[in-house]
Amino acid sequence: MSLDWTSLIRATLARFPAQRLLVIGDAIADEFVHGTIARVSREAPVLILRHEFTETIPGGAANAAANAAALGVTTTWIGVIGRDRPGRRVLTDLRRRGVQTGAAVVLPGRPTPAKTRVLAGLPNAPRQQVIRLDREDASLLPPATADALVARIRAALPNATGVVVSDYGYGSAPPEVIALLQAWRRETGSPVVADSRRRLADFHGLTAATPNQEEAESLAGTAFQTLDDAGYHAERLRERLALDALLLTRGSDGMTLARPGAAPLSIPVHGARTPVDVTGAGDTVLVAFTAALAAGAELEIAMRLANVAAGMVVMKRGTATVSAAEIEAALLMENGL
What is the DSSP letter of 331? Predict the structure, then answer.
């Protein structure tokens, strides 16, 4: 990356501590069970693992909030979470990271979505994921819960300089919340950026969206075979959703930015093309891009900053975050400063 881009990104990072992001969406408990391969079972052709330890890390919108806090941004998370052990662990971890969770809606009887990944390996060898077990409830929220969610978000908006919506399909971003954010964005001009696994078409009239290529292809109804295809369809989706920008993440092929009055801009992935673990990388992109816009950065600078953050976080195992200090150090090293 050129020295000019490095200077602009560093200047943007310096403004992060003054930003206040409101992160809205579905918290997930990402559980990692680590074990050492002991032997093959006599009961079935499966490995027997000797359990070493289990860790629970904030996932989904909770991972987005953790990423925002790691970037030095004042962060509030609001969403629905269960009154259960995974929910308590997620809330405790978020508070430890400095995320404000007091406005979360705790819903007894509704389980916190949990994704359990079993990681196995030989002693003193890297662990590999062998299976994942998901526990989830994607039913609609009770009307009273949706009303409480809207009320708490409305109360938090005046203190926000930007809003992140991380929708994993578990109910924390109902239509009433989207309507509220559309109105707030029109009134204030502050950035509202969304990422949705299954409902991207519902998030229209916001500042931007950050779909991955699979999500964008599903909405476009066609596969993007070439870079030109990606740029063309990114622009069509941006127009269809009435967004200021659409940032399409394309895995090891980098990113494509669609914006008004300019041709789509594509950049290669930052760093190594072979990631260690892509878990939660989309949340890193979503938050870094939004924080940069909230800090007054131009769209291209925000994209390049998000690209650097994503390139660094995928080199870490598990649901990880990257700090502003890490990004700055990496940029300085690249430029020999």
Answer: H
**What's the rounded Cα separation, in Å, for the pair 171 and 186?**
24
What are the residue ranges spanned by the domains of the chain?
A: 3-29+57-113+137-334
Are 141 and 171 in contact, with CB atoms under 8 Å apart?
Answer: yes
DSSP string of 14-28?
A: HTGGG-EEEEEE-EE
What pLDDT sits at residue 336? 56
Summarize pLDDT for 136-193 with one digit per residue, the tens: 888 888 999 999 999 999 999 999 999 999 999 999 999 999 999 999 999 999 999 9
- CATH of segment(s) 3-29+57-113+137-334: 3.40.1190.20
Residue 147 among the catalytic residues: no
Q: Is the pLDDT of residue 296 over 80?
A: yes
What is the C-alpha to C-alpha distance for residues 10 and 268, in angstroms, rounded to an integer?
20
First to last CA, the chain: 13
Q: What is residue 127's predicted lDDT score, i.e. its pLDDT?
A: 84
Per 3-state DSSP, the chain is made up of helix, strand and coil in percentages (nearest 5) of 40, 25, 35
Contacts of residue 253, defined as CB under 8 A and 6 or more positions apart, other chains included, come to 227, 268, 269
Element counts in the chain: helices (H) and strands (E): 10, 14
- Are the beta carbons of 66 and 321 closer than 8 angstroms? yes
What burial letters (b/e) apply to 37-47, b meaning 16+ CB within 10 Å? beeeeeeeeee
Residue pLDDT, tens place only, 70-94? 999 999 999 999 999 999 999 999 9
Q: What is the pLDDT of residues 273-289, one digit of tens each?
A: 676 777 778 899 999 99
